[in-house]
């Protein structure tokens, strides 16, 4: 471990840092880091069945509140919950009636179901108070039949069971018992638990039954790892699944649950993998979701397609998604966002959209940067898709640049609001987010191009994006830094340890410095065969894992580097950053180092994240002024 005894005490008391950021006054009308990272002002809004009211969580602390669309001010009206209890989840039972799960901390955390009368806020308990389970999730609700299905995990099992709850009494009965290795359950349109998806080692499998009274059996073709999502059709052995097409892209197929076999191809997108699909109440495919340059929903039904087109016409240039609807679908609650806007909720009715609430009101009227989709050719001709953010109010010429490779590495960036990107753009930097080889969402061929390319082809793709922007004159090639988290942090440390000319500085959050040590840590989540496959996928033809590790080359590091990590990271342990910090300290190489006590792989405390961005800003002011 890298901490000295005095440093351990400092870490327990607060942030451990080997540098002190200089706070600069923000430019006029540019949001501060704290404003960019503000907790959501509204979450999980739901329209009542008659469309006359909206229930939602509001800041602070996710309180339950109601919005009345008939009121001109649309001010939220909080509903007081019993002292000491907090809201777990909620759902409309009927106009004026909410069902909610309340949670109480203690030596044994407890939970209970209550009915809330929205007119007067009266709370009535349904059923018994019980010990709280883990990961409770609402799977299905049938208001007419008067029941709902909850997935949850109790203290006796490490996998979830499904419970049936009577909506009139709150009485819970076990619908499906927990099964070893089954992590998720699938319900059909009638509320019958039909299938369970499980994993054992590196193998996936499916358990299935035709109807409510049948036993679950293991499907013949259920071990196919390329099947990503299932949905059975009520009263039939048939259904639908997302699976890999011959092209290598994820597509929608029919699926025979009894035989465990794919059926006919229903839909394949020519550019991108499908992310999900929805079924109509009668079991027919309603639409598919996918991401090309941005998130999209393709509806098969003409009515739904027309409804989406009407929304997109009223809210142009945005990603618009229906999140809730009245029973007659005359009123729709729409989430609308851009890469420069974390999102706003609108009530859509009669071809008009009425603004309900913004997720981050602090950003209203502030100057945010536009994000555009770009594509460039890597040195071997592979086309790399990505995103370029340009600072507002500046000519797109000779700009300083921050390259921000995503984590994963087998993931991707999208056209989404990113407070780190907006913070950097607000300081005058262009920001490049390349979906380098190995990125998901573009088909198996693109993902497979990343196998064995850690620190090589993946890094070349990132570097080639810099060269492309420099050739266009968009950026000043002498003012480029690299910043990333997780694998992106590895890429930043790798650039710092190996690069001699392209980057002026590097910033890593939760990055990997010692690939062998990280693989030893990962070994616990794999069986031996799966672990060997994962190791080979990383190492490829490299002579050793040490040859891919930034810490191996710490002696050659000459550029300024800022290293940060959360002490409670369970994905990339904090000792990955400590190893680099220790090596640089022994070598007498100046660097900035900070540990955030209690933070995981993703920062959860906005104050810590704002502090990190402040340190990033001060570091860049010193080494690559914007």
Automatic annotation (TrEMBL):
Domain Peptidase S9 prolyl oligopeptidase catalytic: 416-622
Keyword Protein biosynthesis: no
Signal peptide: 1-24
GO molecular function, one term: serine-type endopeptidase activity
Record keywords: Hydrolase, Signal
Record carries keyword Hydrolase: yes
Biological processes per GO annotation: proteolysis
Protein known as: Dienelactone hydrolase
Source lineage: Bacteria, Pseudomonadati, Pseudomonadota, Alphaproteobacteria, Sphingomonadales
């Amino acid at each position: 471990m890298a901490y000295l005894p005095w440093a351990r005490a400092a870490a327990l008391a607060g942030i451990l840092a080997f540098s002190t950021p200089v706070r600069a006054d923000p430019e006029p009308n540019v949001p501060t880091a704290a404003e960019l990272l503000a907790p959501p002002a509204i979450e999980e809004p739901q329209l009542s069945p008659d469309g006359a009211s909206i229930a939602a969580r509001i800041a602070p602390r996710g309180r339950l509140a109601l919005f009345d669309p008939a009121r001109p001010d649309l001010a939220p009206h909080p509903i007081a919950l019993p002292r000491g209890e907090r809201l777990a989840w909620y759902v409309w039972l009927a106009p004026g009636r909410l069902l909610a799960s309340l949670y109480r901390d203690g030596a044994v955390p407890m939970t209970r179901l209550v009915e809330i009368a929205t007119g007067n806020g009266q709370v009535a308990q349904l059923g018994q108070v019980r010990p709280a389970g883990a990961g409770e999730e609402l799977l299905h609700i049938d208001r007419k039949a008067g029941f709902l299905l909850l997935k949850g995990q109790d203290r006796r099992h490490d996998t979830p069971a499904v419970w049936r709850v009577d909506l009139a009494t709150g009485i819970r009965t076990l619908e499906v018992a927990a099964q070893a290795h089954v992590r998720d359950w699938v319900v059909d349109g009638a509320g019958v638990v039909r299938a369970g998806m499980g994993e054992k080692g590196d193998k996936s499998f499916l358990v299935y039954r035709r109807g409510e009274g049948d036993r679950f059996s293991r499907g013949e073709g259920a071990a196919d790892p390329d099947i990503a999502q299932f949905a059975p059709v009520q009263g039939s052995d048939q259904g639908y699944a997302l699976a890999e097409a011959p092209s290598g892209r994820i597509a929608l197929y029919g699926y025979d649950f009894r035989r465990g076999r794919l059926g006919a191809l229903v839909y394949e997108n020519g550019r991108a993998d499908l992310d999900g699909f929805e079924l109509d109440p009668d079991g027919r495919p309603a639409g598919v979701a996918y991401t090309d340059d941005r998130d999209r929903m393709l509806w098969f039904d003409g009515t739904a397609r027309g409804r989406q087109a009407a929304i997109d016409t009223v809210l142009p240039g945005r990603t618009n998604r229906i999140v809730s609807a009245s029973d007659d679908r005359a009123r729709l609650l729409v989430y609308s966002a851009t890469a420069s806007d974390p999102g706003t909720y609108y009530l859509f009715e009669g071809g008009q959209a009425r603004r309900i609430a913004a997720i981050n009101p602090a950003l209203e009227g502030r100057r945010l940067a536009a994000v555009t989709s770009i594509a460039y050719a890597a040195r071997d001709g592979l086309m790399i898709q990505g995103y370029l953010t340009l600072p507002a109010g500046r000519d797109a010429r000779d700009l300083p640049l921050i390259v921000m490779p995503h984590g994963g590495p087998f993931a991707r960036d999208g056209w989404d609001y990113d407070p780190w990107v907006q913070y950097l753009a607000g300081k005058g930097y262009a920001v490049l987010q390349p979906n380098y080889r190995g990125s998901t969402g573009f088909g198996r061929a693109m993902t497979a191009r990343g196998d064995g390319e850690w620190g090589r082809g993946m890094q070349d793709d990132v570097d080639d994006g810099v060269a492309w922007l420099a050739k266009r004159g968009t950026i000043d090639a002498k003012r480029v830094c690299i910043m990333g988290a997780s694998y992106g942090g590895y890429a930043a440390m790798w650039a710092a340890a190996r690069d001699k000319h392209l980057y002026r500085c590097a910033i890593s959050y939760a990055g990997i410095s010692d690939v062998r040590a990280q693989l030893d840590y990962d070994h616990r989540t794999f069986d031996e065969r799966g672990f060997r496959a994962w190791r080979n996928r990383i190492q490829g033809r490299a002579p050793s894992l040490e040859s891919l590790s930034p810490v191996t080359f710490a002696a050659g590091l000459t550029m300024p580097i800022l290293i940060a990590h959360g002490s409670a990271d369970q994905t990339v342990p904090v000792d990955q950053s400590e190893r680099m910090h220790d090596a640089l300290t022994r070598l007498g190489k100046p660097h900035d180092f900070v540990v955030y006590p209690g933070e995981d792989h993703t920062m959860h405390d906005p104050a810590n994240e704002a502090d990190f961005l402040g340190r990033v800003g001060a570091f860049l002011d010193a080494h690559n002024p914007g």
